[in-house]
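Quiz preparation item.
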């Protein structure tokens, strides 16, 4: 048994318990007991450490990230979804080329920001082995995309090979799953085929949904930007949307789904998603950069969706640091009481996403996984606004534990 302690422990449990001068007693799998450091010190211990002027949180969770796009810095265009997608189509191949070193750095950046667990969208499988070898806990969402019937067999073969490879690498820290890119980019036959695979193997699904007004116009009116998109990039003059919003959502009955973005939902869509076994993931900086819009948090509250935030990839963000994402949220939602919002943001990157990714982490209480992040925050023992000061000042972890082991991030 090991014991770590700190000036403050933010447990993220049901009552959002905060323990001052707290301690966590744990082994390589689970938390055994949590309480006051001085009390727990009386146990038989292999290792003891107290972090002065520090906060311990559950290791953070970034539930939507595209590691393969980590080479993008200033290449892709921001400010309009249309310009962004055009620039992805034009630069995708060069961004993928020799991207391994960028992916490795992105994994490091992720760990340094206190993230111990990710939902990674893998479009080509280039991130697969690097992620499986990393210290991170990973749900690898193998992406399927395509709407041209001539290529269906090729797409299926490629998808299946990636899926099988990721299944063969499964471990206590690595799980295979499935991502359907979006309703504008995926034919119904391929969607049904991939959903069946997810259901047969009880894998969660991730999908982008109603990110842009262009997608909404396409699904509702069969018109707008996407007409030109299919004509210019796929030589298809007669492309039609494969779904209505309703028929797309219907596909996910009986699945465990993460809908990502959801910036353009109407009441009917909110209602339909709330009937599914589904959560919504919001990527605030990505949404600001591509679509000039933030997720409607008050609607999410009305429909009882837990708040979940993620960074998306470097394809639509300037960093993969979850603490930068947290600060963006704090400043974006000006109508919310700042102290309450700070607490909601902490849950949005711990307890709330943990439920769907299934690693038994995200909360510090006995029998949960031993995944912790420790941050030095000057004078944290002098404030009553712990959550707010944590979000304002936390930048890089002091230490990160995954499955009870301290991670050597630099050499990971
Ligand atoms: O989430 C953002 C914006 N929305 C859609 N896709 C992506 C994002 N970041 C990367 N992507 C990838 C996506 O996985 O870009 C490609 C896909 O492989 C788009 S090609 C239609
Ligand atoms: Fe995304």
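Solution:
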């Amino acid at each position: 048994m090991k014991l770590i302690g700190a000036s403050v422990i933010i447990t993220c449990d049901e009552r959002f318990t905060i323990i001052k001068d707290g301690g966590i007693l744990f082994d390589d799998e689970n938390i055994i007991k949590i309480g006051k450091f001085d009390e727990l010190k009386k146990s038989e211990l292999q290792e003891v450490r107290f972090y002065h002027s520090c906060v311990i949180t559950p290791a953070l969770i970034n539930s939507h990230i595209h590691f393969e796009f980590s080479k993008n810095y200033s290449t892709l265009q921001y400010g309009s979804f249309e310009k962004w997608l055009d620039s992805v189509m034009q630069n995708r191949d060069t961004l993928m080329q020799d991207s391994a070193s960028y992916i490795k750095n992105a994994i490091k950046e992720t760990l340094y920001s206190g993230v111990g667990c990710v939902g990674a969208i893998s479009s080509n499988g280039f991130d697969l082995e690097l992620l499986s070898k990393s210290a991170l806990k990973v749900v690898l969402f193998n992406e399927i995309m395509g709407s041209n019937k001539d290529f269906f067999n090729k797409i299926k073969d490629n998808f299946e090979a990636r899926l099988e490879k990721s299944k063969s690498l499964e471990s206590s820290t690595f799980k295979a799953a499935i991502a359907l890119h979006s309703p504008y980019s995926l034919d119904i036959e391929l969607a049904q085929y991939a959903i069946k695979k997810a259901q047969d193997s009880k894998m969660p699904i991730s999908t982008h949904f109603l990110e842009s007004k262009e997608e909404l116009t396409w699904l509702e009116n069969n018109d707008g930007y996407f007409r030109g998109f299919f004509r210019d990039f796929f030589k298809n003059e007669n492309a039609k949307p494969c779904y209505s919003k309703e028929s797309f959502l219907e596909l996910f009955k009986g699945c465990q789904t993460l809908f990502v973005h959801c910036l353009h939902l109407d009441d009917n869509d909110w209602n339909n998603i709330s009937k599914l076994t589904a959560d919504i993931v919001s990527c605030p900086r990505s949404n600001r950069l591509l679509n000039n819009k933030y997720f409607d948090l008050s609607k999410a509250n009305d429909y009882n969706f837990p708040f979940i935030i993620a960074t998306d990839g470097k394809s639509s963000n300037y960093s993969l640091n979850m603490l930068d994402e947290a600060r963006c949220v704090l400043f974006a939602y000006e109508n919310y009481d700042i102290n309450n919002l700070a607490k909601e943001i902490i849950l949005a990157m711990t307890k709330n996403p943990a439920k769907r990714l299934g690693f038994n982490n995200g909360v510090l209480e006995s029998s949960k996984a031993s995944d912790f992040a420790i941050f030095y925050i000057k004078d944290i023992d002098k404030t009553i606004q712990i959550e707010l000061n944590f979000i304002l000042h936390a930048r890089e972890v002091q230490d990160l534990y995954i499955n009870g082991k301290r991670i050597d991030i630099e050499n990971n």
